[in-house]
């Protein structure tokens, strides 16, 4: 019985932690030599659908300060005049909906009159199928960071961090971690 309880708790923990995680996706120009870039600069952020979330000084500072620290740790130096590579970011928040499911899972009672759902002696557990009972609205945030070769003006790298968000403040506070995760995807000599 204890083993079943541990499995249930572990499954619940895995489900909740997967809902709160950030998903990262990246793409790059396969033939590009990223080792040639020694200096970087910033383009203005691209206007997007997230004015209410990320179009404020705190969000911009969280993104740019963390990105600058990550870029310097990758060996790039900031340059206002003629940088080798230019970066820009695109924040997006989408309104979405998802189905909410009802489950026929329940715990048995204890004792002759039951302590919960059911009659009888001993503990029990039962399950069945689940079915949709409605939908819920939620917001899904994306932060896209792109690198453009200054000479060709072509995007050579792009990465995106995406996550569920319930409140603007939490999304803004989460930005430094998202930016750090995005720059782990940046191609360097050791990372192909």
Automatic annotation (TrEMBL):
InterPro entries, per the entry: DUF4136
Keyword Lipoprotein: yes
Pfam family, one: DUF4136
Keywords, in A-Z order: Lipoprotein, Signal
Keyword Lipoprotein included in the entry's annotation: yes
Leader peptide range in chain numbering: 1-20
Boundaries of every DUF4136 domain copy: 29-187
Stated name of the protein: Putative lipoprotein
Organism, as annotated: Sphingobacterium deserti
């Amino acid at each position: 019985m204890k083993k079943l309880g541990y499995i249930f708790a572990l499954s619940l923990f895995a489900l909740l932690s997967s809902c709160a995680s950030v998903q990262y996706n990246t793409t790059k120009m396969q033939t590009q030599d990223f080792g040639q870039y020694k200096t970087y600069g910033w383009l203005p952020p691209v206007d997007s659908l997230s004015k209410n979330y990320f179009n404020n000084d705190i969000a911009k500072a969280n993104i740019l300060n963390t990105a600058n620290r990550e870029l310097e740790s990758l060996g790039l130096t900031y340059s206002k005049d003629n940088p080798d590579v230019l970066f820009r970011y695109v924040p997006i928040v989408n309104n979405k909906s998802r189905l909410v499911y009802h489950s026929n899972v329940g715990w048995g009672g204890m004792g002759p009159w039951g302590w919960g759902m059911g009659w009888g002696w001993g503990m029990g557990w039962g399950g069945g199928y689940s079915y949709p009972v409605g939908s819920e609205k939620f917001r899904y945030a994306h932060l896209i960071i792109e690198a453009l070769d200054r000479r060709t003006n072509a995007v050579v790298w792009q990465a995106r961090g995406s996550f569920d968000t319930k409140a603007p403040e939490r999304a803004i506070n989460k930005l430094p971690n998202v930016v750090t995760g995005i720059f782990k995807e940046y191609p360097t000599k050791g990372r192909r």
